[in-house]
Structure prediction request, 154 residues.
Amino acid sequence: MNVNYQSILKKIADVSKIDSQPVYFIKVIETRCPDCPYDPITGSTGRRYCPSCGGTNKIITEEKLEVTANVEYITGLETQFERGGKFEEGTVIVTVHRSELERVNLPTEDFRSDSVSYIDVNNRRYTIQHLTPQYLHGYMYEIIFRLNRYKQGV
Ligand SMILES: [Zn+2]
Prediction:
């Protein structure tokens, strides 16, 4: 049987643009404060009243990568079940096509749940609970991310 995988993948790519929206993959980057003197022997943590870092000797920056994705909110009324039980209410399912990950230099096959710090969907922050790469004929064409609301301090 001669299956035209290229045309199937093309169809998937086209469909992935329907009913889609921007979501933001956020990487939190922690760097040493450039305005604090660093003592490698004592490991001194900077100036107490440093205006740049407030004495923490750390500068936190966020890299925000916009990708186009399909977003599905789990309301708890779904009839579909996943392995191990029902989707938890409040879960968000985000499907991102490979071409979108590549466009912003995110990992593809080797994407891990800690590859990014958060995913921002409609101005709410989520963490990756689980991710499922989708393959066709050995080619990974999209990743389905199962997200949970980010709870600060937990
Ligand atoms: Zn500083």
Observations:
- Strands lie at 21-32, 38-39, 44-45, 58-73, 81-82, 85-86, 92-97, 118-121, 124-136, 139-149.
- The CA atoms of residues 67 and 103 lie 8 Å apart.
